[in-house]
Amino acid sequence: MLRSLIAALVRLGRDEPAATLYGALQASPTAPPVFGADAARLAAAVETMEGRAGHDQVAAWVGRGRALRDDEVLRLARAAAGRDRNP
């Protein structure tokens, strides 16, 4: 679910939550490995974000995501998807 949400957010130009969720996905010990077409889509998403916001800014957002607890990731994902009225 997070992979699809990240791609959708990037398409919408919402790079900060996308990169933050990407960092959380990378750091998750329970997330299945990303490979094949999913890996290519995520790499393209990161490249797009870096083209808009710059490598250093995206790296900062990714770093923030890596530090999130599971409940924080869920809250961010819900807010980014517009499903949480109290982000």
Throw out a few tags for this protein.
87 residues, mainly alpha
Beta-strand share of residues: under 5%
- Tell me the span between the first and last alpha carbons: 19 Å
**Radius of gyration over all CA atoms, rounded:** 12 Å
DSSP helical segment count: 5
Major sheet summary line = none
Order of helices and strands: HHHHH
Oligomeric organization of the protein chains: single chain
DSSP, total strands? 0
What is the secondary structure topology, with strand pairs?
Layout: H1 2-11, H2 15-27, H3 36-53, H4 55-66, H5 70-80
Could you walk me through the main structural features you see in this protein, from its secondary elements to its overall organization?
The protein is mostly helical and 87 residues long. Helix 2 packs across helix 4, helix 2 runs antiparallel to helix 5 and helix 3 packs across helix 4. The radius of gyration is 12 Å and the shape is globular.
